[in-house]
């Protein structure tokens, strides 16, 4: 009987120790969580490249505006902290996140398996695809990417983005040229130095409503499926959980209707173009 009591005491002691140890581990994980660091700092630090309309760009006064900026402001408000936008070159934006120069990437980043090897993504907040804008002279002659994939045609896109990946996938015979910015690539087509550009559908739609109107033709059937997501460092379930819950709330809250108003403001209306021209 005494041996059974001793065994029960030992089991209870081990169980209690395990519970305390588990609780201590949970506390340590919370302290290391980016979300906790944001709350302690009182500031949400967001990496973005201000050159991707309508998600992030600079207005006439040099202020960064756009879809992602409004979403980041809402996010910071829900956290009860200040917002700090950190303009970052696209080719170094993942490194900036991984090395702790910001808490999150909110920059119209497409979720890909390759990027997911280095960083984690929250659930998609917008789904886009790559489409083609081409010279007006090609209207009727070119009806698909296949028609454009010939040696006599030059196709441009932005360097280091999913637009480049799609361009190299769909065009094996056409000449491909990449540019540092989407604006430079689009200008190449406008100026007649290239035949077409492959880039994200929202950007192309807006470009066609402004500079491309009457001058270019938009083949608006997406070549790809590309969900956009916010990127965070790996090993941070607390922050990921908060972000997904935040996104679910803003999408489903029909009273405030923030998400639908945001989409209307930046993805459907074009009034904001006056602020950046």
Automatic annotation (TrEMBL):
Q: Which residues form the Ionotropic glutamate receptor C-terminal domain?
A: 43-269
Task: Fetch the InterPro entries from UniProt.
Answer: Iontro_rcpt_C, SBP_3_CS, Solute-binding_3/MltF_N
Name where it mostly resides.
Answer: other
Specify the signal sequence span.
Answer: 1-24
Where, per UniProt, does this protein localize? Cell envelope
The yes or no answer to whether the keyword DNA-binding is present is no
Q: Which SUPFAM superfamilies match?
A: Periplasmic binding protein-like II (SSF53850)
Which keywords does this Swiss-Prot/TrEMBL entry list?
Signal
The domain of life for this entry's organism is Bacteria
Enumerate the spans annotated as Solute-binding protein family 3/N-terminal domain.
Answer: 43-269
Please give the family membership noted in the entry.
Belongs to the bacterial solute-binding protein 3 family.
**What protein am I looking at?**
Transporter substrate-binding domain-containing protein
